[in-house]
Every structure is written in C-alpha cells, then in structure tokens.
Write a structure and sequence with these properties.
single chain; alpha+beta; Butyryl-Coa Dehydrogenase, subunit A, domain 1; Butyryl-CoA Dehydrogenase, subunit A, domain 2; Butyryl-CoA Dehydrogenase, subunit A, domain 3; 3 domains; seven-stranded mixed sheet; two-stranded antiparallel sheet; 9 strands; about 50% helix; about 15% strand; FAD; Acyl-CoA_Oxase/DH_mid-dom; oxidoreductase; Acyl-CoA/acyl-ACP dehydrogenase; Acyl-CoA_Oxase/DH_mid-dom_sf
Length: about 375
C-alpha cells in the first residue's frame, strides 16, 4: 500500500485547508447556519456518491481532507458533530436505505439542509444489540417503534435518526432491526442533554419513541438486518471520525511548541529544557504512529478488508494518542494550560470523550481480542 497522496488527494487536502481557514469560527453545530455553511463547503458529503450531491471520495481521501480541517482550525465540536452526521447516518443511508429514501434524504444530508444522527445507546443496556429495550412490532404493513435512546449526537437538531431496535419475535439478537426514522414522525420527541464537560458545542440529546408508526420501507437492509447496518456504521465512524481530532492535535502541538520556544527563564528558552523537549518529541512520535494506523484503517475500508479489526484498532490507537497528547501538552504548559492559554485545557476536555464515543476502549479491545481468538 502507498499512502503518498495522489494529485487529487493533495487538491482535496489543500481545498479543505483553505476552506477551514476562511470558515466563520463563530458558527456552532447547534445552529442551522453552521450545517448549511458546512454543506456549502462540501464537508458533509465527502464520501457520499456524486449522484447524491457528494464528492464521491473514498475513505482514505475523506480521512485526509477531514484531518486537514482539524489541522487548519475547525473546532473539535464541529468535527465530531459532522462526523456523526456523515459517517453514522448519511453513509448508512447511502449503503442500506431504500432507493426512495436515498433520493429523498441524501442530497439534503449532503447540503446540510437536513441533519442526521445515529441513535444506538440506551439508558440501561448501552448499544449492545443483545440488550435492547427499543422494540419494533409489526401492525399489518406498518411498524410500531417504542423505546428511548440516549447520548445521541446531533439529536437536538436532527431531522433523521438511524435507530437500532429489538425485532418482535426475533429468535436472536442477530435478527434485530435498524430503521430510518424522520424527526417529524408523530411520537418522536427529543430532550437536549446538558452538563457535558467536553465538546460542549456538539449538541447531544435523549430521544423517545412513543408508538411511532413507520412504513415497512423504514427497515434498513431489510427486516432483522441490524447487524450489517450497525457494522457498516461502526466501520465508517471508527475508521474516520477521529481524523479531524488528529489534525487538531497537530495544530495544538505546533502552537505549544511555538509558545514554549518564546517563553524565557534564567537559562533561556523553556524549549531548551530536555524534559520539555522530550515530552514534545513523545507527542510528535505518538501522533505520527496513530496517523499511519488511521490511514491503514481507511485504506482497509476502501479495500473491503476485515471490517472488525481495522476500525477497532484505529479507534483504539487514535483515541489513546490524542488523549495522551492533550494531557502532555497540558502538563508542559503548566499554569498557562489551566488558564486555557491556546485552548489546551478545553482541548483536553474535548478529547476525553473519544475514549468512549463510537464504542469504548474496552469494546475496541474486545473486538480485537475476538479476532485473535479466531486465529
């Protein structure tokens, strides 16, 4: 495999960087104007088909472009919200929705005229397909959805939810279902979540489905086919959603290095202290190692390789690397870090959640371990 950028990939990276530098930083994902601006830039359709208004990028090109957005200054909240929208919802619709729903939703999702959300986590059982309280019952040709999902990214603004639910009469959790549920369907209600310590500008919420009546075409990939749908969503999320965070970590490293180089003590530049320099060198090496794991996972997604191991390894390695980098940068900034000089303290709060988003560290380790057990 060759990760040297093609001319088209270099153009995509340069274009993303230029757009990010010109983007209005005052826009927040909790505002509709943000989504329309992001859609106008093409950020919400990087890997969607061109026939649906997307750019038609493969996963590796998408990762390169999203990484460039983070490196050039797009906030982590914005990166996370856009990733949940594109990888957790839009790509699921592109891969598994009916032709009618694709025609209706994909252009709107690509333009930012509609916001998407992946609703898997429940208050009691998490996102385990074997322990779902959300249920689907069939009433003639209609489906009735009941239950609650929590910690749903983009929920307060979402127009479309991808929902996992227990199929009435299913003999196994492997036969549960996934549905696309429009926000304006009677019985759908959303309560915004509050109190988050990080990613405060990335809206989250609790979604309740109270006797929500849906057509049979709401099934994604067909009745009792939740597993391939959720697997597809996790492939894209775990392989791609932290690319921008890795770029943002590069941005922070450059900023902190410059700050410490200019800071003086009785011996000269603080950057001359070996302990400081070694700490920054560790960050640089760790981020570079994570980058190649990220690229490898995106390439594997494009090649149709192992859909379990590579996404789990990428999510595990990249999340740990960016959290470690943020902690180290906070430490070397000392008191200036806690004053949030350069945004390092708030950056640390933002990245901590990546250890649990899209499956916790232990979920990723279980996935990797299961692959080892099969050898």
């Amino acid at each position: 495999m060759d990760f040297g950028q093609t001319p088209a990939q270099s153009d995509a990276v340069a274009h993303a960087r230029a757009q990010a530098l010109a983007f209005d930083a005052a826009l927040r994902p909790a505002e509709q104007a943000f989504w329309q601006a992001a859609g106008a830039n093409g950020w919400l359709g990087y890997c969607l088909p061109t026939t649906a208004g997307g750019a038609g990028f493969d996963a590796l090109t998408t990762v390169l472009a999203v990484e460039a957005l983070g490196r050039a200054g797009v906030s982590r909240s914005a990166l996370f919200a856009m990733g949940a929208h594109l990888f957790g919802c839009a790509m699921v619709m592109a891969n598994h929705a009916s032709a009618v729903d694709q025609q209706h939703w994909l252009p709107r999702l690509a333009r930012g005229n509609a916001v998407g959300a992946l609703a898997l986590t429940e208050p009691e059982g998490g996102s385990d397909l074997a322990d779902l309280d959300c249920t689907i019952t069939e009433d003639g040709e209609a489906l009735i959805l009941n239950g609650v999902k929590t910690l749903v990214s983009n929920a307060p603004l979402a127009d479309l939810f991808i929902v996992s639910a227990r199929q009435d009469g299913a003999r196994s959790a492997l036969n549960n279902a996934a549905l696309c549920v429009p926000r304006d369907t009677p019985g759908v209600s959303v309560a915004p979540a509050t109190g988050s310590l990080g990613l405060r500008d990335a809206p989250m919420g609790r979604v309740t489905f109270d006797a929500v009546r849906l057509p049979a075409t709401a099934y994604l990939a067909g009745k009792g086919r939740a597993l391939p749908v959720i697997l597809s969503a996790m492939q894209w999320e775990r392989s791609c959603i932290l690319a921008g965070f890795l770029g943002a970590a590069d941005r922070d490293l450059v900023a902190v290095t410059g700050h410490l180089a200019a800071r003086r003590d009785s011996k000269g530049s603080v950057l001359g202290h070996q302990a400081v320099l070694h700490s920054l060198a560790e960050v640089r090496a760790s981020l570079e190692s994570a980058r190649w794991t990220l690229y490898r996972s995106a390439w594997a997604l494009d090649q149709g390789e192992d859909p379990i191991f590579h996404p789990a390894a990428s999510k595990l390695v990249v999340s740990r690397a960016i959290v470690s980098a943020a902690r180290t940068l906070q430490e070397v900034m000392a008191g200036a870090g806690w004053l949030d000089t350069l945004g390092i303290a708030s950056g640390l709060a933002d990245v901590m959640g990546t250890l649990s988003a899209s499956g916790s560290t232990f979920v990723q380790l279980n996935a990797i371990g299961a692959r080892l057990a099969r050898k």
